[in-house]
Amino acid sequence: MAFTLQIGEKAPDFDLPATDGNSYQLNDFDSAKILVVFFTCNHCPFVVGSNPVTRQIAEKYSGKGVQFIAINSNSETTHPADSFDKMVQQMDEQHFPWPYLRDQGQKVALAYGAFRTPHFFVFDETRKLVYTGRELDNPRQPQLATINNLERALEELTNGKAISTPLTNPVGCSIKWDGHDKHWMPAEACDLV
């Protein structure tokens, strides 16, 4: 049985192709003081709704040594809109300020224990997990959100403070699994979206 990465655990490595034509491993981001790995996709309304907020945070903290990395682990069999070609198309249109990686075999999502899109994992300079969970409490309608847990965690971390709320429940669609036994994953969130 697999579980979500726990606070204090090290970031699992990966070697994944990206929409920019390169492949990336964890050590390609060694220069970043803080690493935000988030699991996302092309179609989920929670992702689409919160992408502008995620962009703002990534741009705000890029000058403070924070690097964002987006990973799409969704099955394209279940959701053809999450194919690599569609990812490239989305990046061409949106020009997100982060590399967009494809986890075709879904092994990276399993290693991190990601189960929602979006699902955020924040690692410190030693690549230990210091925050995981949601960005907003209402990512589908950010204008109605009352708290931005991700930004608060980054603000505290970049100012040398302890993270006041290191663990929250991610809010979003369930990752679309392909050929795995995922009974440990919560299954209630917008599986048909």
UniProtKB/TrEMBL annotation:
Gene3D superfamilies: Glutaredoxin. Transmembrane segments: none annotated. The lineage of its organism: Bacteria, Bacillati, Bacillota, Bacilli, Bacillales. Residues 5-159 form the Thioredoxin domain. It comes from the Bacteria. PANTHER family: OS07G0260300 PROTEIN, THIOREDOXIN-DEPENDENT PEROXIREDOXIN. This is Peroxiredoxin. InterPro entries: PRX-like1, Redoxin, Thioredoxin-like_sf, Thioredoxin_domain.
